[in-house]
Amino acid sequence: MALLTLGINHRTAPVEIRERVAFTPERMAEAFSELRAASGAGEAAILSTCNRTELYLAGDDDCAPTVLRWLAGFHDLDVADLENVLYLHRDSDAVRHMMRVASGLDSMVLGEPQIFGQLKDAYSLAREHGATGSFLTRLFEHTFSVAKRVRTQTAIGENPVSVAYASVSMAHHIFADMSRNKALLIGAGKTIELVAQHLAEAGVRQFLIANRTLERAQSLAEAHGGKGILLSEIPDHLADVDIVISSTASPLPILGKGAVERALKKRKHRPYFMVDIAVPRDIEPEVASLADVYLYTVDDLKQVIEENIRSREGAAREAENLISSGVQDFLEQLRALDAVSTLKVFRQRAEVMRDAETEKALRALRNGADPETVLRSMARGLTNKLLHQPSIQVRKAMAEGRTEVTECLRELYQLDTLDADEPITTEKL
Fold it and tell me: pLDDT by residue (tens digit) across 320-348?
């Protein structure tokens, strides 16, 4: 079974490309159906976050060119738009890549924990759509096990650093005493939940959380003493907040330049701090051109993130060693499974030959043949059948110069323990 990982991330593609390649929840069923049909892969999974889009495929053939064309077509892009930003990993490299992603070693914020949950969600979604089989199931479960060891056996996740944490850290550059500031958080997913937690720890006491469904917004807001509102209510409250951080799965911007301009007039141009973590973006890029608005995207958080990376480099080296062991363990498991299936077929074929010779001998006995003659004939027939095909393949391999085949034969049957000039007896076997 061949494994292929194909994708883009924050290192290979700017946000303008990443947001166009992101998969929205509404189109996931369509994506799984088309991807498996186009690639011919028996198993598939899709990971789509603000910083990466990756496809995991397990099948018998190299379907990379076909998948690239499908990915471009699905998102109305030219293949050329993706070729220069796409990465491709095969087999053991693909296994290592998935483990590094799950452990946070390939994230913008080294060691950030969110990606582990996002990868688990991607696996669950693939299972819901019937897109996984035994191979990807085994790979995902082994990957999660390795990632948990990385978290528990290294210091990779000791400090609370993530895109959410970096967003709040940057707010300190604008507002020294954040207890005086009111925050509007758009969305109610895991990222916004982390943002709310970090803001509360930084001193923010006044929260508004806007979401498409009011119940989820209220539930999250109440945990921090805030209020939940609908997305449609944002313009009514925008002038009253100082911090706006957004992370939704909306395919279109939620906050436009016009709404921010009107709010700025009402607040007499007191500054806004805004972070758009979403891909595709929730806040129109033109908002950044307004005076008194400090708008950042996920790509703008790199300076804060780089400082966090330096503090985690030692732990990352330990994590890489654990991942190397994890890759080897997984490959050994696959080889063991392959050996089991091969031995099963080998035994079944031998049993078919045995049964055929046994039946032939029984017929001869029923017809009155001499038992000793029948027994010797049965032994010769079974020996000839068992050795016929291997003998042909060994001669063919030697003629082609593949001497390793005879070396394997000697090892399998311990032929090196026998003297070629001595007759072989039962005592020597």
Answer: 999 999 999 998 888 877 666 777 888 88
pTM (predicted TM-score)? 0.61
- Indicate whether 148 and 170 sit together in one domain: no
Can you tell me the mean pLDDT for 239-249? Answer: 95
DSSP of 155-168: STTSS--SHHHHHH
Q: Among residues 190, 192, 223, which one has the least CA distance to residue 210?
A: 192
* Marked catalytic residue, from 8, 21, 35, 50: 50
In this predicted model, what pLDDT tens digit does every residue of 204-226 receive, in sequence order? 999 999 999 999 999 999 988 89
Question: What is the average per-residue pLDDT within 116-143?
Answer: 94
Tell me if 23 sits within 8 A of 107, measured CB to CB.
no
Indicate the number of domains in the chain.
Answer: 3
* Contact of 81 with 7, CB cutoff 8 Å: no
- Model confidence band, residue 410 (pLDDT cutoffs 50, 70, 90): confident
In a domain, 341, yes or no: no
In whole angstroms, give the CA distance from residue 386 to residue 403: 21
In a domain, 101, yes or no: yes
Same domain, 167 and 285: yes
Half-sphere exposure of 195 toward its Cβ, with a 13 Å CA cutoff? Answer: 32
Terminal CA-to-CA distance of the chain, rounded, Å? 37
Domain assignment of residue 174, given as a range: 163-306
Phi, psi of 385 (to 5 degrees): -65, -40
To the nearest 10 degrees (0 to 180), the angle between helices 371-399 and 302-366 is 140
Answer yes or no: 63 catalytic: no
Looking at the fold, whether 153 and 194 belong to one and the same domain comes out as no
